[in-house]
Amino acid sequence: MNATRAPDRELLARVLLSRVIEPGDEAGGRWLREFGAVEVARRLLKGSPRLAGVSGKRWAGLCARAARAEPERDLVAAGEAGVRFVRPGDTEWPAQLDDLGDARPTGLWVRGRPGLRIWALRSVAVVGARACTRYGAHMAGVLASGLAERGWVVVSGGAYGVDGAAHRGALAAGGATVAVLACGVDRPYPRGHTELITRIAQQGLVVGELPPGDHPTPSRFIVRNRVIAALTRGTVVVEAAHRSGSLVTARAAQRLGRHTMGVPGPATSALSAGVHELLRGEAVLVGDAAEVVELVGDMGELAPDRRGPVLPRDLLEPDARQVLAALPARGAATPDEVARDARTTADDAIAKLYELQSLGYVERHGEGWKLTRQALISAREGRERC
User: The pTM is what?
Assistant: First the structure.
């Protein structure tokens, strides 16, 4: 919105409707699609004709809310708080939110300097349990900082637990983060995160569907999650019980065709049970930022190969490894015995034994050969790796 110009009718209508129609109300979204914001606002203010899809009682309630709305005042209050209203069709509007169909936000209140559309193009949601464990907080923070270091924007809900750890991880890495709130963006919630959300507004973005001063409710937290899912390329869930709200975000991401990922936890942890349920379905297991980026990023953004340490015996030629494996763990063996167990000739076995002796794997004892201490340690490490 240009502060030097008077707001247009469509803008005022959408600001009014952001105070009248609850987030995620598909009936309201259908009205907007069929009649446009100006006509819907006009009917609500006039009280007639009633729009389809709601009872007379509910229509009366919506009209009463419309009569109390003051869109000009909301815009002034927002401007004083450094908040702007972004609506569909604006340059800053993230087009991926249109995937929500009739559940698309009427508009978004945005606090912070960066452009929301540009930031959302390369963003990942990191969500999870409020009452998370130290492991959950650690994983959320490490994932978020790793994503931020790779140039990805970390999106979460500003709540306690995993959300807060994700925001802090991104900020600690000097990266970008977005908090999507279930209340007015001018009043941080939860109160204990006032300092964190203020810092996010200074370094990143705080976003919400509700107008200045509006308060959160349990249902608003749930419908807020669809915005987090739609705004980002994928959602990572770090710790979630079976009834966790973060699973709502993950399932919304799946319905929208976004990537869904989960960080596993102990099989005995109730806080990881919801994540494990996702992983048994279509979600992808991830353990670090590189694996997340490989899934949601562009072609060529691959995670490094996961391999165990290379042991010295791994560098031996196959024939030499076969001869080495033919030697007993205890005691010595003759070249004929080694050749038989290695399925080679005695001459080849002797040649390989002298080669292994030069490398410190075997030693000669009279007419026989035995493993050195180095070889025994290497064999034990190989067994532990299997």
Answer: 0.81
